[in-house]
Amino acid sequence: MTLVLHSLWNRRFVAALTVFAIALSVALILSVERLRDSARTSFANSASGIDLIVAPRGNDVQILLATVFGVGSTGAGMSGEVLELLEEMPGVAWAVPLMQGDNHQGFPVIGTSAAYFEHFKHSRRQGLEFVKGDAFDDVHGAVIGAEVADRLGYDVGTEIVNAHGAGAVALEVHDEAPFQITGVLARNNTAVDRMVFISLEGFDALHAEIAPRSADPFDTLAEPSHDSHDDEHEHGFVPDQINAVYIGLSSRTAVLGVQRAVATYKAEPLAAVMPNVALLQLWSITGTAENALRLMSVAVMAASMIGMVVMLSAALEARRREFAILRSVGAAPRDVVLMIVTEALLLTASGIVLGLLIFWGVALLAEPILSTGFGVTLGSKMLNVSEVTLLLTILCFGALASLLPAWRVYRMTLADGLTTKL
Amino acid sequence: MSQISVSDFSFVWPGGNAAVLQNASLGVAAGERVMLRGPSGSGKSTLLAAISGVIDIPVGAVSVAGQDIGTLPASKRDRFRADHMGLIFQVFNLVPWLSAVDNILLPCRFSKRRRDRIAGPLDKEARRLMAALGLDPDALGASQASALSVGQQQRIAAARALIGAPEVILADEPTSALDPETKETFMQMLSQQAQESGAALLMVSHDNGLDHHFDRVIHMSELPQTGTVA
Fold first, then answer.
1. pLDDT, tens only, A104-151
2. Which pLDDT belongs to residue A237?
3. How far is CA A377 from the centre of its chain?
4. Alpha-carbon distances, residue A315 vs A254, A329, B45, B98 (angstroms)
């Protein structure tokens, strides 16, 4: 053992490089695993609490993307009456309407009711929380996600204007209708962090004003409130058009009934999407990328293992003399083989330890960037069982890989005997 | 009692057709110093390989310290070599990245018997041998083997062969890389130490000038005639 250490120390430069290569790949594999886990959890959590999403008929995944993730749109809108209909449907506990199509500096703007903040649930049925302020209670109020607040430096009281369209480029700015921020939501690492919420009335007003603006912009300033919807229902404002409705059921068994009722709705083609099912579909797409990533890190691991085998094998030729001397003082070929395997284990083990350190270091440094930028976390927490298994597997592979040079050295020592043919 | 006894030993290398050794017989008693001389290809190295147990040999041909080498399996032969033999080669005797003392103590890593035969700390014994072979243990003991001169390296190799007092010391042209004066002192110290420890010293060399250090000088061509020495 001390012989192995001495011998490795004698080749410390190459040995250090090898350890470093293994360390990097260990760190990479761990990071990929953590990111994968985190991405999947954050993904799967993004729509918990919602039992159904009702939207104009379309692709389930598209509806999910548009509503929960704020990516793209549901296409055509549906009549606001659907909301009332759904609210009165048996089995429906609550219904939250969504209006979409605007953005604020690239962040999707959602028109909804204050009930959204009450019912939307993410990871493990956690609800939304306000770090500052409260939900909007009038037409001009707005609530922003944590990332919006961080990126744009907004706070309660800031006035914002929205742009039409879902892209980052403001095609048409609704600067005639500013909103005042009434609340900032706590970060939860879902798409909500990137959303701006305003009331249905506010959203509708925005669009109601587009037409008159071109005729006489001062009109709208003089009369900023909506004029076409004075016939408000007793349970709240109902706009002409909405994009989707989140539905919570009073009992799980009502799902099929509600789904059927929505699907057979005569006035418009509608669909009721179960977010969990759609999420699974979506995950099967991203899962491919995930596997590719995983494959890559395994390939990197394999490359570093090969690097170690190369290092051990390359050194064999130069160490023939060393082995012959060891044999002459009584080392059996088996002892020499054991030396090689021990070296490999030592290299792999130190690679793993260094890799862990690198991983934790990176996790610590990258944590803020990752969680704000992508809503995923590496987590500097201790290793879980599967990660320990992974590391042990790597160690075993290190030992296995060393069998190749070990076998060569065995043959070599047998052939050389004690005479060093140099 | 004969520490090395070779009787009627013939050997053909695997794949070879001519016998390297034909009916060779040789005996070396405890404390005896024997020089074996012969041209290249006369089978000197083969004989040393057979005695040190590196090659497979028939039963009953070679015995060392009363043990028939031919009956031992390969792994036992390695152990046996560590326990009972000290070897010195022409050059490259030392592990370059170990210190002089660590090189001397190498056999003790593999042989409990050699370890146990040393009274007192191993380190002290290594230094004693260094001093006995004319090396300053304080100056050179900790230095890396690769930093030593060839003459110093050979003495370290001799110290390693001697440590733990093995019954047999085999030397394969240990002086061929040394200059005449170093040669003389090296041989003197080696044979003296071998005699002190009571080991049988069998040395192979081309060098005529060293004969006076040995009790007997045998030419390879005489082996078939020497017969078994009791």
1. 888 888 888 888 888 887 665 677 888 888 888 777 888 888 888 888
2. 67
3. 8
4. 71, 21, 27, 17
How much helix, strand and coil, in percent to the nearest 5, is found in chain A? 55, 15, 25
* Ordered structural domains, chain B, with CATH: 2-226 (3.40.50.300)
Distance CA A159, CA A151 (A): 15
C-alpha dihedral sign at A16, A17, A18, A20 = positive
Instruction: For residue A309, give how far its alpha carbon lies from the nearest alpha carbon of chain B (Å).
Output: 22
User: From CA A243, how far away is CA A77, in angstroms rounded?
Assistant: 5
Rounded Cα distance between B180 and B76, Å, is 39
Q: Are strands A196-199 and A107-112 parallel, antiparallel or unpaired?
A: parallel
* CB within 8 Å: B92 and A3: no
Beta-ladder partners of A103: A108, A163
d(CA B23, CA B104): 36
Do A330 and B79 make contact, defined as CB atoms within 8 angstroms? yes
Contact A331 B94 (CB under 8 A): no
pLDDT single digits (tens) A150-170: 888 888 888 887 776 655 555
Q: Which residues on chain B place their C-beta less than 8 Å from a C-beta of chain A? A: 45, 49, 52, 54-55, 74-75, 78-79, 81-83, 87, 89, 92-98, 102, 106-107, 109-111, 160
Q: Are B150 and B76 in contact (CB under 8 A)?
A: no
CB atoms within 10 A of CB A239: 22
Quote the CA–CA distance of A63 and A54 in Å, as a whole number: 9
Question: By CA distance, what is B170's nearest residue in A?
Answer: A328
Among chain B residues, CA nearest to A422: B92
Q: What's the gap in Å between the CA of B139 and the closest CA on chain A?
A: 21
